[in-house]
Amino acid sequence: MSEKVRVVHYLNQFFGGIGAEEEAHIPVQVQEGTVGPGRLLQQVLGDSSTVVATIVGGDDYVAENEDEAGLAIDAALSEHQPDLIIAGPAFDSGRYGMGCALVCRVAGARNIPAVTGMDPENAAVITHRRDMIAIPTGSSPSEMRSIIEKMAALGLKLAGGEEPGPVSEDGYIPRGIRRLVFKEERGYVRAIEMLKARVAGEPFESEIQVQKYDDAPPAEPLDDLSGATIAIVVSTGVVPRGNPDSVPGARALEAGRYSIEGIDDLSVEEWESVHGGFNTRILNTQNPNYALPLPSLRKLESDGVFKNLYPYFFSTVGNQTAVGPAREIGQRIAEELKSAGVSGAIQVSG
């Protein structure tokens, strides 16, 4: 490409210099040239490229108004006609990551190369990894320069008309996309060689990337339930009707905490599910107890199977929630339950 590569950069309201959480509601806006980390991006890109504009979107606005935000982003790309989009990096911020993913998706619909950067456990990776090319990051913006250097290098390659190479070469987060390639040796020969290396304790690299998750060893079973206090934790999104704490239907960062003292069952007039990952019609029009089996647990309590239910339950959603935030939610709940002397918890999944 003989002419300078035209680059559009996407940032959230914080890195866009507008403000922190109090400004997360701002609509998508466009500023000419570089903003914040965009100055570093321009420095890394050098004379071969120009950051012609920066799109800034509030984290809450983009997450809650995806259609409107997408149209505004599309209009900005139409106006500035970029050759390359750089989004973020978002690190481990789930809402920022979803904004970066949206920009990449809009760019993809226009056949414009786009590169972003985020933690592999970001909710956007879980939800949109097939629709974006993302350089893996940690959680700290202190690595901003090294991440932007990697994003820029890969972005310029794509802007030059090249296809992304294998993950092992270009260093982006695996997208779960398999392509047909030809090898000199047949598959069974390569498989046997890998098996021999594994048996011998020698290094080898699988040809199929498998996502790895943390091992979560189960807790020891309770020896005697008769004196136990049992808590209820659900990821089914059950909340008081009207959702007073604004528990999201996806990409949760917190859990709601609600009293069930003196309540034997959940009525449809007073409770609902805000889960966005499955059909909640039956729960919200007939019986929310399907998502939190309070009548059954009260029966076990009255029969003396266990001593009593903890007077509060915790409710969140697992839909599109990244591993990191989910772990933090669980740790906060566990701290309260342990300090209150709760013996065990029943977890109801959505």
Name of the CATH first level of the largest domain: Alpha Beta
SS class: alpha/beta
Number of structural domains? 2
Give the full name of the CATH homologous superfamily of the largest domain: Glycogen Phosphorylase B
Biggest sheet strand line-up: 2-3-1-4-5-6
Query: How helical, in percent, are the residues?
Result: 25-40%
Contiguous uncertain segments of 5+ residues: none
- Tally of helical segments: 11
Between the first and last Cα atoms, what is the distance in angstroms? 50 Å
Determine the CATH topology of the largest domain: Rossmann fold
CATH architectural grouping of the largest domain: 3-Layer(aba) Sandwich
Average of pLDDT:
91
Biggest sheet layout: 6 strands, mixed
Order of helices and strands: EEHEHHEHEHEHHHEEEEHHEHE
Strand content: 15-25%
